[in-house]
Every structure is written in structure tokens, then in C-alpha cells.
Amino acid sequence: MTLKASVVWSGVWVGLALLFNAFLWFYLMQNYALKVANEKALEFFTAYLVEETLSMDNVFVFLVIFKYFAIPINFQRRLLLFGVLGAIALRLVFISMGIWLIHRFDWVFYIFGLLLIYSAIRIFAFHDGEQSLSDNLILRGLRRIFPLTESIASQTFWVKKNKRYYLTPLFIVLIFVEISDLIFAMDSIPAVFGITNDPFIAFTSNVFAVLGLRAMYFILATMHERFLLLKYGLAFILCFIGAKMLLHHVVDISIFITLAIITLTLFTSIALSKLIHVDVHKD
């Protein structure tokens, strides 16, 4: 997928999300009230924006995985497709479990809030550097259990040689993609609960964000060096939502203010990243 095609498809997915949000607002206004329609539409847009933003961090991990295993660009498309389908299934399970826990145990809100703040601190404390998977425990374990091929000959996940089946690197990469999404879902799903407790809003906003992940990958794959400060923006957003969840009985932060802070943080981190990128290239 070319950069131009990726930008077009990203625009299509964002447009579909906004169209769905407009339909949701219209439906709620017709069947309930304008106040309900405005509130739910804002919740959807804010949750969608948060998920789309946090997905960028997931994409950077995909870049590391594909680079380490030297996956050709045409094979990456298939892996990302399976990754998107797996991500949707995982989010359905996580959101269902999270909603059940929140309705049953009020203190779960505090657990989610602390988890988000811990994730933010972890991002702030992480120092950029060349990441390697060579000593990864999962990879070493898979190599001990399953016979693996070293080369990628086709888009299959296993091959048969001498009456024996071997897993290809594509299968290993798929496992890493799903595991990385599982790990990032532990951040993103609690973040959504800091915005809405409506399971329909939580799930649909996640689905639309994940559906645009494939196109977003090919954009960030060529432009990721221009977003040096984005991770700090993501960390601040996680910290803010975590604090919002911890203080939800003390301070009532409206969904409008939440959206404004998230949007301002996102645009500020991107703008500053662009300035730094320009200065570095000038030097």
C-alpha cells in the first residue's frame, strides 16, 4: 500500500467513524432528547480519538516486530488484517469484562486509574533505543516447542517438509502482533472507561479505531521519525484519564473538557515534534 493510498484509506475510516457518530446523534435526538444525543456523541468522539491516538503507540511496536523478522511489505498487509480481526475480538471480550466489573465493583475504577498512571510513568521513563527481540522469552519458547523455518517463501503460516510441519516466521509475527495488541488493550480499554460506561459506545469507538489501524500503519511506517514527542503526549493523556478516574467522586470533569484537553495535548505533541524534526534537519 502506497503512502497516498494509506492517507486516502485513513481518511475513509475517519469519515465513516464521523458518519456513524452523526447517525448516532440523529437517532438519539429523534428517540430520546437533544441532551442525551449531545452527550453520547461527545462520548463516542472522545473515546474514538483516544483509541486512535493510543493505537499509534501500538503501530510503533508493529514496526519493530516487522523490522526484526524482515517481513516484506506485501506480507505485512495480511498480518495486519489478521491483527485487526484479532484486536476486535479481544476488545469485545475486554470491554464486556470491564463493564461487568465496573457495575459490580465500584473500586475497579480506582484500579483502572492506577493502571493508566503506571502506564504513563512507564512511557515517560522509557528511553528510546534500538529494540531487539532476539532474547524475547516468547520467541525462545516457541523455538523450543515448534520447528521453525528461517525463510519466508510464501504467505502461509506453516510449510510441510520431509513429512513434518514447520511454522514460518509469519506465524511467529502474528503471535507477537496479537500479544502486543493484548498488552496495549490493557491501557486503551481502561482509558475508554474513563470516558464512558456505555458498552455500545465503548465497543463501537474501539472498532472504528481498530479498523483504521491498518492504513495508519503504512503512514507511520514512513513518517514515524517525525513524531518524536508523540509518546509523551500519549503518556499525558493516559495520566490525565487515570487521574480523572481516581478523582471521579471528588471532581466531575465534563466530557467536553476531557475532549478539549485530549485534543490540545495531541495537537501540541504533534506540532512540537514537527518543529524538532525541522530543526534537526536544518542542523
How is this structure best described in words?
The protein is mainly α and 283 residues long. The protein has one domain. The chain has ten helices and two strands, in the order H-H-H-H-H-E-E-H-H-H-H-H. The chain has a two-stranded antiparallel sheet. Helix 1 packs antiparallel against helix 7 (199-211). The two termini are 32 Å apart. The model has no long low-confidence stretch (mean pLDDT 82).
Draw up the topology in text.
Layout lengths: L2 H29 L2 H35 L4 H32 L3 H18 L11 H9 L12 E4 L2 E4 L1 H25 L5 H13 L1 H11 L6 H17 L8 H28 L1
Antiparallel strand pairs: 1-2
Give the terminus-to-terminus CA distance: 32 Å
Helix content: over 70%
Count all strands and give the number. 2
Order of helices and strands: HHHHHEEHHHHH
Give the overall pLDDT as a whole number.
82
β content, as a range?
Answer: under 5%
By DSSP (H or I, 4+ residues per run), the number of helices equals: 10
Largest sheet: 2 strands, antiparallel
Structural class: mainly alpha
Q: Please mark out the parts with pLDDT under 50 across 5 or more consecutive residues, or reply none.
A: none
Output the strand order for the largest sheet: 1-2
| Broad shape | globular
Whole-number total of structural domains:
1
Over all CA atoms, what is the radius of gyration? Answer: 20 Å
